[in-house]
């Protein structure tokens, strides 16, 4: 999750008090909350009491006198690095102190009173699930409420997550981010003030072996089935005409488990697909479609004079990755902070092991670069859990004094309509060799950026690569 403080605001104090500087905290480029220095200092002091000064990153010191514009900008940069460092720390970033601070600040900034409201959550097939929640309910609360409405068992809730998406004109979903524990879903979606933003329930794991756990339950089976049918209809899962015929036959027989077993063998099953974007693979400014799943990033591309091709980048061969953002200035303008800025440009860059002794940077330019980074991290986390012999099966945490509000009436997951005939114009995909030797990759250096070392995501799964993986 990408935290930034791209700007400050001068605001008047309450009841005509003296003006103060407010810091706008953005999450994935969207305003999350607006806070004062004193509030962030209070957060720092509380974290220090709980975890000790040695664990915390440096916090910008107090000043006796009013800050100059240059000092305001310097403090903004220091606070941004502080928030990023705290969020990236496994202990601090997951602490209730840090997350509850951000939830309160989000609610206060958006001026949303605590009250009971109806919230619409969509399933992957577009089915609507209407739940009653409080505006102050965090992501875990809302996920619990959806599971209760669908009658999904508690021990399967951890296999699903809530995602913020933008519904496009054709009804397809463009994934913005996975909703986190530091935000209030109702506030997050309504503060965007657009009907095209929705909350969607989707499975949160990548390894299809975990499907067995979910398919043991009727509701879990129906959710997986509805998601898979939807992914096939959208073209996210690659299906031949013969495979499509077999799938439709299983659908007609209502053989959901057999349908899913066949779907598991298909290319891009369980993948998350992103909007069309640009990469420097295999050449500069190459139009690509990126999909994430099965411990890899897949890039579908069209080379000049050739048919549609696909290149796969395995997560276990990425040494590290990072997301960088830049704001291009209009030509002829000066670099005055906060003035004359254009649209934010996001890039995901990863260093990839092309061969045994050759690492190379690959860059993808996309508004969804942060979401891609989140997918990479979750795939690595899942690989490390599996490597250690652990399991993602878990009971949802119960907070002390918390209550689970179960709906009086459960809602069934509707069976999706039969698959339509495949598009006859859809081209077949040619898989590039596993070593990417079918395409010559131009050599590039490290992406030019002022990002500090803390902005780079090191890949623990990379350490386990042996010659047999190359």
TrEMBL record:
* Keywords carried by this UniProt record: Cytoplasm, Cytoplasmic vesicle, Endosome, Lipid-binding, Membrane, Protein transport, Transport
Q: Out of the domains of life, which is the source?
A: Eukaryota
* Name of the protein in its database record: Sorting nexin-17
Spell out the PROSITE patterns in the cross-references.
PX, RA
Query: In the UniProt record, does the keyword Cytoplasm occur?
Result: yes
Cellular localisation: Cytoplasmic vesicle membrane; Early endosome
Could you state one GO biological process linked to this protein?
Answer: receptor-mediated endocytosis
Q: Which GO terms describe its molecular function?
A: low-density lipoprotein particle receptor binding; phosphatidylinositol binding
Region feature Disordered, mapped onto this chain: 400-426
- Where is each Ras-associating domain found? 115-206
Q: Which residues form a coiled coil?
A: none
Domain PX: start-end pairs: 1-109
Q: Which InterPro entries match?
A: PH-like_dom_sf, PX_dom, PX_dom_sf, RA_dom, SNX17-31_FERM_F1, SNX17-31_FERM_F2, SNX17/31_FERM, SNX17_FERM-like_dom
Family per record:
Belongs to the sorting nexin family.
Q: What does this protein do?
A: Critical regulator of endosomal recycling of numerous surface proteins, including integrins, signaling receptor and channels. Binds to NPxY sequences in the cytoplasmic tails of target cargos. Associates with retriever and CCC complexes to prevent lysosomal degradation and promote cell surface recycling of numerous cargos such as integrins ITGB1, ITGB5 and their associated alpha subunits. Also required for maintenance of normal cell surface levels of APP and LRP1. Interacts with membranes containing phosphatidylinositol 3-phosphate (PtdIns(3P)).
Mostly located where?
Answer: membrane
* One GO term describing the cellular component: Golgi apparatus
This protein's record includes keyword RNA-binding = no
Report membrane topology: Peripheral membrane protein
Q: Which organism is it from?
A: Rhinopithecus bieti (Black snub-nosed monkey)
Entry's SUPFAM superfamilies? Answer: PX domain
Cite the record's note on assembly: Monomer. Interacts with APP (via cytoplasmic YXNPXY motif). Interacts with KIF1B. Interacts with the C-termini of P-selectin, PTC, LDLR, VLDLR, LRP1 and LRP8. Interacts with KRIT1 (via N-terminus). Interacts with HRAS. Interacts with ITGB1 and ITGB5 (via NPxY motif). Interacts with CCDC22 and CCDC93; the interaction associates SNX17 with the CCC complex. Interacts (via C-terminus) with VPS26C and VPS35L; the interactions are direct and associate SNX17 with the retriever complex.
Stored Pfam families? PX, SNX17-27-31_F1_FERM, SNX17-31_F2_FERM, SNX17_FERM_C
